[in-house]
């Protein structure tokens, strides 16, 4: 077992569950998918599936009972960043909370709040679903003093309506629905009504928040506040209040104008070049559980559910193997080979051999931040070079023995003529996250390797941990950095070898050489966020063999002829050695077909230097305030377009 063993399995959690014969998805008749081959006999009930430790709520339950359940989980998870708990709250169609007794759901680490309706309007939370700042007072860690959302990772909300009712909350907390989060957090298919949605907690701040992701959602006033960067895709907003360093929008109705970039630093694309919404669970009118798999589209704008059900196919839950951490990889692979899809219920899965997805159009859906933990240097998940596979809601952790890669899509060095892909039905990774270090020592050469063509990466956070509980000696380093550099190994975060790969919401941080390496042609990226590693011990260990100072956060291979990036941010904070220099934030071939729009670099008001933004162009950031700046703040450096016009 891993150092973080999964919790004991609980059938449907602690809450009572009742499945009504008819649920509130009125007027929608949902067809099941037609498969090319006969499905194997079901292993789960169509109307009463065992969803492991996930908790299923019914609207007939007393609000007090639901409130007690979610409060108990939040108390466990509010500060358990490196723990093994994984939780999913599943709300059957209906309304939860009343005007007099609203339901207030606070969302901690590794917790996902999911509505089970065919439309977000089928599940209504009369109350709030919220994340607040965490407050720290640790004199041994000066960076962890105060209240901020900088580490509010690993959580999500999807497929429901929040009719904001903050009755009974404190004065400041009653002013909005708070969603003060950072990386590995997604908001999808959410309709916020009746009050503002704020992405910062201004009640105990404002202070640091490091960016997040919204897709296929609707809200009135969105208060960005202290969010340093953010990506919003295919949504509808009344107002977006402000920018900080790098705010990026594509296909968003109501997105701010970017014509005066970088003042303010908005990047707005009228449409999203390639999009596919994440699969979602729902319960149909007959009480049967289904997974809706949206179709991929090009040139999209706005929400998918305004005029009816999101376009796509519905797959009965009976065609899924519903796995728990008790199930072996052998059994999971046997079920996949028989033609089943895979639903990973909450938990930490120790994976000592690869889970292999070989069939086209297979769906792998995790709920509750289901986590695959590599054991013995295994590659936890491989996807064959076939079209239409969707992997969503899965976190992949490195283990103590170095893996060559944590998730591999397509085999490396496959001849182009032999690659099987589809631009209209791309293999898609949605809310797929990676972690190297943190709860335990982690080692991998590459986290994510994409060898197939026509792959869509729709929101990922690829993180080599800059802090954790691995037990490193802190006597000569900050957060154990004196040991972390040589113990938590991660050379590259993402390596893309396939052609026509699109990434929307591309967060990659702290790897020991290039964080992102793009070798394929016709790559298209919308929002890139990167922090260079904090922990190189010296300039000598942060220098390439050819003498180049450091590795750029974003690297496009020298022989690539066509590539596009919109809205990039690369940040430096070299806390082991303040004199360390990184030559460029971005390194790309100088050719007309490789174009970077709206890119920036920033020193995080501390040690370390980035000499140029891209290829020797753009100013230096070194943490020293510019004239007129506050004593502890230095402006970012921006390049509007490269090559320069």
TrEMBL record:
Ranges that cross the membrane: none
Tree of life domain: Bacteria
Keyword Signal attached: yes
Keyword DNA-binding included in the entry's annotation: no
Signal peptide (residue range): 1-38
Keywords recorded for this protein, A-Z: Signal
Protein name per its UniProtKB record: Adenylyl cyclase
Organism the protein comes from: Aquipuribacter nitratireducens
Phylogenetic lineage: Bacteria, Bacillati, Actinomycetota, Actinomycetes, Micrococcales
């Amino acid at each position: 077992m891993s150092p973080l063993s999964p919790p004991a399995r609980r059938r449907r959690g602690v809450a009572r569950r009742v499945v009504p014969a008819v649920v509130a998805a009125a007027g929608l008749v949902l067809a099941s998918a037609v498969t090319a081959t006969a499905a194997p006999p079901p292993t789960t009930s169509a109307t009463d599936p065992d969803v492991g430790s996930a908790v299923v709520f019914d609207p007939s339950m007393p609000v007090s009972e639901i409130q007690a359940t979610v409060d108990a989980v939040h108390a466990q998870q509010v500060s358990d960043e490196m723990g093994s708990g994984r939780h999913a709250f599943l709300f059957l169609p209906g309304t939860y909370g009343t005007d007099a007794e609203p339901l207030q759901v606070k969302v901690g680490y590794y917790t996902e709040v999911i509505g089970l309706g065919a439309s977000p309007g089928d599940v209504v939370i009369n109350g709030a679903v919220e994340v607040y700042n965490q407050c720290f007072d640790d004199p041994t860690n000066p960076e962890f003093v105060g209240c901020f959302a900088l580490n509010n990772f690993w959580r999500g909300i999807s497929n429901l309506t929040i009719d904001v009712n903050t009755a009974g909350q404190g004065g400041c907390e009653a002013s909005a629905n708070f969603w003060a989060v950072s990386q590995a957090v997604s908001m999808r298919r959410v309709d916020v009504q009746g009050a503002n949605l704020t992405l910062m907690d201004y009640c105990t701040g404002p202070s640091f928040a490091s960016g997040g992701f919204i897709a296929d959602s609707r809200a009135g006033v969105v208060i960005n506040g202290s969010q340093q960067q953010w990506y919003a895709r295919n949504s509808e907003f009344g107002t977006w209040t402000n920018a900080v360093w790098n705010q990026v929008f594509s296909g968003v109705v109501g997105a701010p104008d970017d014509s005066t970039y970088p003042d303010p630093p908005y990047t707005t694309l009228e449409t999203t070049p390639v999009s596919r919404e994440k699969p979602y669970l729902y319960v149909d009118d007959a009480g049967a559980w289904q997974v809706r798999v949206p179709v991929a589209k090009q040139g999209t704008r706005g929400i998918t559910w305004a005029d009816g059900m999101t376009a796509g196919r519905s797959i009965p839950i009976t065609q899924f193997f519903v796995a728990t951490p008790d199930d072996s990889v052998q059994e999971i692979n046997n079920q996949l080979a028989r033609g089943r899809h895979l639903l990973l219920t909450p938990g930490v899965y120790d994976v000592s051999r690869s889970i292999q997805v070989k069939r086209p159009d297979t769906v792998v859906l995790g709920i509750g931040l289901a986590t695959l933990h590599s054991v013995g240097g295994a590659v936890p998940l491989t996807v064959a070079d076939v079209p239409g596979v969707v992997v969503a809601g899965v976190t992949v952790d490195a283990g103590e023995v170095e893996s060559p890669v944590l998730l591999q899509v397509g085999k490396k060095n496959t001849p182009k003529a032999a690659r099987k892909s589809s631009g209209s039905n791309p293999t898609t990774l949605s809310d797929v996250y990676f972690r190297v270090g943190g709860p335990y020592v982690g080692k991998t050469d590459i986290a994510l390797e994409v060898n197939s063509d026509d792959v869509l990466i729709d929101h990922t956070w690829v993180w080599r941990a800059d802090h954790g509980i691995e037990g490193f000696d802190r006597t000569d380093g900050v957060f154990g950095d004196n040991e972390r550099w040589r113990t938590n190994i991660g050379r590259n975060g993402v390596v893309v070898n396939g052609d026509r790969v699109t990434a929307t919401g591309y967060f990659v941080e702290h790897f020991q050489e290039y964080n992102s390496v793009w070798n394929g042609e016709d790559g298209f990226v919308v929002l890139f966020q990167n922090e260079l590693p904090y922990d190189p011990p010296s300039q000598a260990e942060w220098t390439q063999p050819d003498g180049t100072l450091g590795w750029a956060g974003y690297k496009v291979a020298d022989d690539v002829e066509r590539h596009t990036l919109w809205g990039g941010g690369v940040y430096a904070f070299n806390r082991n050695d303040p004199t360390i220099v990184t030559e460029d934030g971005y390194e790309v071939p100088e050719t007309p077909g490789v174009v970077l729009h709206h890119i920036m670099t920033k020193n995080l008001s501390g040690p370390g230097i980035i000499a140029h933004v891209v290829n020797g162009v753009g100013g230096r950031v070194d943490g020293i305030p510019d004239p007129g700046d506050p004593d502890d703040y230095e402006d970012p450096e921006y390049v509007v377009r490269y090559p320069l016009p």
